[in-house]
Design a protein that fits this description.
Blueprint lengths: L1 H8 L5 E5 L5 H17 L5 H22 L4 E7 L2 E10 L3 E9 L8 H16 L2 E7 L5 H6 L3 E6 L2 E6 L6
Parallel strand pairs: 4-5
Antiparallel strand pairs: 1-2, 2-3, 3-4, 5-7, 6-7
Helix pairs in contact: 2-3
Length: 170
């Protein structure tokens, strides 16, 4: 609570996490769909077709992650008391993988993502682990990851594989 009071005094909204529940599925879909808005704006599909496509993509992505990241945590990001995004993490022996982090447009660029990622970095440093993430090369959040010390490990075409290590901090 003291952290939330300090954030409020500094003009930054408090950020919290809570486990995603089955009833959050529509929220999680809205978060996902918001990350694809710009990309799909140029597509001349009727609104119903776009939504059907996004739902199919969301379901496939969710199923893949749950299969390939067994034991991952799936959390809802709460900014200033409002559900505002999703943070999915998987922890291995030597790394914490940011499977996904996304905020709804109105919660972006307010510092919530920075605070969440710094918390993940802090947790990783305490455990002697790296933090890794795949990011689309045209994702505006790439600048945030670079600012937080993530470095390119592998160029995978559309995606870049980045890593942060506590011993690489300058």
């Amino acid at each position: 609570m003291a952290d939330e009071e300090a954030m409020a005094a500094n003009g930054t909204a408090p950020v919290a996490l809570r486990p995603a529940a089955p009833e959050d599925r529509d929220l999680l879909f809205r978060v996902y769909a918001s990350t694809r808005e710009e990309e799909l704006a140029a597509v001349a599909w009727p609104p119903g077709a776009k939504e059907a496509f996004l739902r199919q993509q969301f379901d496939a992505q969710d199923a893949w992650w749950r299969t390939h990241y067994s034991g991952a945590t799936f959390e809802v990001i709460v900014v200033d008391g409002r559900d505002a995004g999703r943070l999915y993490l998987w922890e291995g022996a030597a790394e914490i993988r940011v499977v996904d982090v996304a905020l709804v447009p109105e919660a972006r660029r307010g510092g919530a993502g920075t605070r969440l990622l710094r918390d993940v970095q802090r947790r990783a440093a305490e455990a002697g682990k790296s933090v890794t993430i795949h990011v689309e090369r045209l994702n505006p959040a790439l600048r945030l990851y670079e600012r937080l010390g993530f470095r390119l490990v592998e160029d995978k075409g559309v995606y870049l594989f980045l890593s942060w290590s506590p011993d690489a901090v300058s």
